[in-house]
């Protein structure tokens, strides 16, 4: 019997051709891949060039951002943190708006402590710089109580979270800048010290002997709360757990008398004894003295307040608070008189502070208070203040 032949008809030849075609395609694909890997990339088509450029820019931006986050900041990028203590709204927001517009390099940040629940929006402020700049854990502040210290510490704790912040300026809601942003920034940043109004308080009635020995009387200081702190001193204030408890325990305000409201009656010679320690006038000064840091301070404030008004017949200008400047007070003569001050004398220490900036004679004050909204706007519109 003959062996049976296998017949390769048309169907068999087609299958063989298909296999051969697949093999050819595979070899061609491998060759092209090798060729592409060893050759420079082809130029994108005209329609895709913009998209490719956009991708490259995003990649470059990510690289630059990573480098900035890892590398130390150049000195010019250090920020001044402005810490506003306000009741509710900021009545002088337009004045500050003009001031902050003078910076084009992002050299400032803003934090506002207002009453709990208050939010800065288009409905509550006229300046975009203040939108949502309120802290979210504010406390109710009462004058002459330790709650003012708490507000300061809250503001500092928020500002210290930003590593770019190098100086911390406490600002009243009735305060105006006297110079433009660049001058103010250079003045503050050129000093390696904090500006803290601080002097020995040897009068009775403020220091509570029960604070001793935790706060000895030789470390007791008085001054304005409107300080400018370097980062080291800001951290000392935020992390203090020794001096603050003593203030809360022993530094309580007595009921304030109402005698000064009757302007036709003389103010008693020892009226200052009518109330006890005012924490915001003593805490930062005493804490830094207690910490052995007074050598690192310029012991004066850069914020001007007018206190010597005992002869005023305006009953609103008498008492425990500095004068409030009204529209009629906002004159070129007033601004010039403040700018012309170049030294401050501290009677209790027989010390005179000659004011300097960058080791050269300079005006003492960068800011002034207390101005009403109308007075501030008059200064701004009349260009009495340089912003």
Explain what the structure shows.
This protein has helices at residues 10-37, 46-70, 93-100, 147-159, 181-189, 231-238, 243-250, 283-290, 332-339, 373-381, and strands spanning 79-85, 108-113, 165-172, 176-177, 194-195, 199-200, 221-222, 228-230, 297-298, 303-304, 343-346, 351-354, 356-357, 360-361, 367-368. It is an alpha/beta fold and 387 residues long. Strand 11 and strand 12 (351-354) form a beta hairpin. Helix 4 crosses helix 6 (231-238).
At a glance:
One of its GO terms (cellular component) is membrane. The chain has ten helices and 15 strands.
Report the count of strand segments: 15
Choose one word for the global shape.
globular
Largest sheet: 4 strands, mixed
The gyration radius over C-alpha positions equals 34 Å
* Strand order within the widest beta sheet: 2-1-3-8
Strand content: 5-15%
Query: Given the helix and strand composition, which structural class is it?
Result: alpha/beta
User: Spans with pLDDT under 50 lasting ≥5 residues?
Assistant: 1-12, 30-47, 57-74, 256-275
Distance between the termini: 117 Å
Produce the secondary structure layout.
Blueprint: H1 10-37, H2 46-70, E1 79-85, H3 93-100, E2 108-113, H4 147-159, E3 165-172, E4 176-177, H5 181-189, E5 194-195, E6 199-200, E7 221-222, E8 228-230, H6 231-238, H7 243-250, H8 283-290, E9 297-298, E10 303-304, H9 332-339, E11 343-346, E12 351-354, E13 356-357, E14 360-361, E15 367-368, H10 373-381
Parallel strand pairs: 1-2, 1-3, 5-9, 10-15
Antiparallel strand pairs: 3-8, 4-15, 6-7, 11-12, 13-14
């Amino acid at each position: 019997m003959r062996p049976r032949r296998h017949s390769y008809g048309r169907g068999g030849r087609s299958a063989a051709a298909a296999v051969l075609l697949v093999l050819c395609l595979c070899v061609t694909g491998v060759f092209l891949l090798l060729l592409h890997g060893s050759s420079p990339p082809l130029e994108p088509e005209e329609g895709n060039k913009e998209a490719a450029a956009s991708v490259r820019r995003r990649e470059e931006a990510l690289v630059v951002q990573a480098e900035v986050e890892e590398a130390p900041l150049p000195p010019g990028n250090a920020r001044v943190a402005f810490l506003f203590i306000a009741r509710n709204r900021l009545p002088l927001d337009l004045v500050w708006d003009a001031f902050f517009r003078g910076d084009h390099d992002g050299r400032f940040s803003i934090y506002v402590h207002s009453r709990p629940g208050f939010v800065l929006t288009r409905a509550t402020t006229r300046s975009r710089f203040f939108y949502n700049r309120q802290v979210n854990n504010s406390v109710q502040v009462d004058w002459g109580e330790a709650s003012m210290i708490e507000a300061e510490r809250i503001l500092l704790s928020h500002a210290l979270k930003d590593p770019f912040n190098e100086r911390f300026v406490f600002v009243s809601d009735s305060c105006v800048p006297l110079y433009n942003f660049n001058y103010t920034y250079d003045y503050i940043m050129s000093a390696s010290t904090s500006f803290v109004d601080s002097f020995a308080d040897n009068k009775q009635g403020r220091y509570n002997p029960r604070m001793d020995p935790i706060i000895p009387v030789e470390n007791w200081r008085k001054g304005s709360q409107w300080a400018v702190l370097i980062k080291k001193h800001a951290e000392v204030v935020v992390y203090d757990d020794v001096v603050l408890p003593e203030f809360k325990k022993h530094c309580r305000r007595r009921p304030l008398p109402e005698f000064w409201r009757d302007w036709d009656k003389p103010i008693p010679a020892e009226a200052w004894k009518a109330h006890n320690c005012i924490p915001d006038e003593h805490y930062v000064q005493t804490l830094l003295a207690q910490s052995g840091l007074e050598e690192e301070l310029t012991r004066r404030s850069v914020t001007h307040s007018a206190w010597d008004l005992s002869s005023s017949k305006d009953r609103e200008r008498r008492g425990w608070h500095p004068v409030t400047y009204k529209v009629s007070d906002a004159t070129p003569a007033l601004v010039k008189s403040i700018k012309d001050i170049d030294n401050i004398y501290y009677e209790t220490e027989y010390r005179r502070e000659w004011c300097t900036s960058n080791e050269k004679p300079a005006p003492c004050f960068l800011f002034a208070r207390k101005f009403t909204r109308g007075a501030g706007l008059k200064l701004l519109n009349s260009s009495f203040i340089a912003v």
